[in-house]
């Protein structure tokens, strides 16, 4: 198992290199000069510009720049913004916010998605089932922008006006964990719908399995048959989905953070692309790729815990 | 400590005149998109303690559905039982409330399935799965239940049982897996054991060992055994009596000796004549010409008439009743006398 983890981490290196190179090249190809952008409308002293360009290695050829950057990353140095701030410092605070948001979304997704899915599966073919399936369809087909603004208006603003209680604060993240609830739900929206459907299918399939019939034939109660024998098996594909979805949620945070004005890496990424802050863009994307790789590794390890037929050497 | 379930449970001990298990005019049908599938159409058979009843018949004849009805593990819907009784020690299981049936299943009537790999739960150890019987039904502790599991694995002769009790089903060979299935089914000394093609998925040498094991376990415990099988070769050695099924009906039932010497139904006769030779053992039997009937669109009269060499005009219109040939034999053929005479003893 230990060797497997090490092998997986080594395999992650080329993935990391490839994705950063790609992003680096993309940002490199963006039109506009970041140094010129620094000064806005003012005229710049050509000498200062030259010093700055030199300091940020902007005159080097592309691969030299990339090498300089990536070797820094492996030493834990993500470089500085063109305004002189340490990128790692900048990211650390914002990253925490986005992780909080994504985790809130993931927990909601797991609880609501699995819960609704199981409920639908156990009532399959009846009204509850149809109602749940219909609402997942709605959740899937309405764009996040719409659900985001509508919920913000209804639950964030109107509800507060009507009741006088701020159930779901929407003023950034200044009200502690509660301010993550509404954006978390919006972020999780489509994922909840997909997970609900996946859960339902998974349990319905599992309930048809031969070993479930065996459990009934053993005289086990319906509760035990479903809760022990079927559920353990039905959960296996859901764990994979949830793990892979963490990456999706972190990526999706760009839109949600913008709607709810949350100062996370999503918003930062958006601004950095706009301002040609190469080191920040590449840094954030590198971090996202890392999260994705780690989440997938954890999923694969969990998989082996849940399904004894899978063994890693 | 008495609950409502135990009040209605059939008593143990003496049987009087009632057989241990009696299936009586059982009908099972499935509501499907294509229409009503009449899978079982009036099956009757009985079983005594210590007796082995072999149920024969080609694929789709309703052998498994009958067994599942006895176990009460049919999915209803789509299945429904419009008619019939399944009496266990005189109590009709079909009329029992669900919690009472749960008390009988596994503890007093147990079942072995064909494919042990899919019938065992892949995510639990075999020890856990066998031990579950003791933990849930006998309230034993985890440790005691595991000890029992090891004992049972020894009893069905799984080598190094103690070391393997924590292994998962996929870590065993096919034969060993079926032994685990057997260990689980006999865990609580059931009075009736139903084995649904327990050896079909195994290779020939292992088949013989499993059959031997079943026969031995049955001798030790005096349970009634219903053995569903395709393999007529096996039946002769272990069965006391045979029920031959065709299109959801019993077409002949008789003591094993009688049916082998003088079959009284053209279908059983065809089956016997198609017994594979020793060198071909294990192959499926399809020597009877023609196809099994379509359950959605059953032939009129005798369901076997399109394939029957003895057919007369009235076979197409009149459904043959189950004629009594002797107190222990029946045949659902208008012309059973001709069939009997046509075989030389
Ligand atoms: N859930 C179901 N829905 C619809 N039809 C079913 C269902 N289960 C069984 N049947 C039908 O009932 C008939 C009898 O099936 P059964 O499994 O009892 O056959 P069998 O005699 O055990 O055959 P085999 O030797 O292949 O196991 C088959 O034609 C089958 O198609
Ligand atoms: S009743 Fe007629 S068709 Fe049916 S088995 Fe007998 S002879 Fe054949
Ligand atoms: Mg069958």
UniProtKB/TrEMBL annotation, chain B:
Predominant location category: membrane
Tell me which species this is from: Thermocatellispora tengchongensis
Q: Which family does it belong to?
A: Belongs to the ABC transporter superfamily.
Under the heading PANTHER family, the entry gives: DIPEPTIDE TRANSPORT ATP-BINDING PROTEIN DPPD, OLIGOPEPTIDE TRANSPORT ATP-BINDING PROTEIN APPD
Q: Which Pfam families match?
A: ABC_tran (PF00005), oligo_HPY (PF08352)
Q: Where is the ABC transporter domain?
A: 21-272
Keyword 4Fe-4S set for record: no
An annotated GO BP: peptide transport
Per its UniProt record, what PROSITE patterns does this chain match? ABC_TRANSPORTER_1, ABC_TRANSPORTER_2
Q: What is this protein called?
A: Oligopeptide/dipeptide ABC transporter ATP-binding protein
Q: Which InterPro entries match?
A: AAA+_ATPase, ABC_Ni/Peptide_Import, ABC_transporter-like_ATP-bd, ABC_transporter-like_CS, Oligopep_ABC_C, P-loop_NTPase
**Location within or outside the cell:** Cell membrane
**From the UniProt record, which GO molecular function terms apply?**
ATP binding; ATP hydrolysis activity
Topology in the membrane?
Answer: Peripheral membrane protein
Q: What UniProt keywords apply to this chain's record, in alphabetical order?
A: ATP-binding, Cell membrane, Membrane, Nucleotide-binding, Transport
What would be one Gene Ontology cellular-component term for the protein? Answer: plasma membrane
Query: Which superkingdom heads the taxonomic lineage of this protein's source?
Result: Bacteria
State if tRNA-binding is listed as a keyword.
no
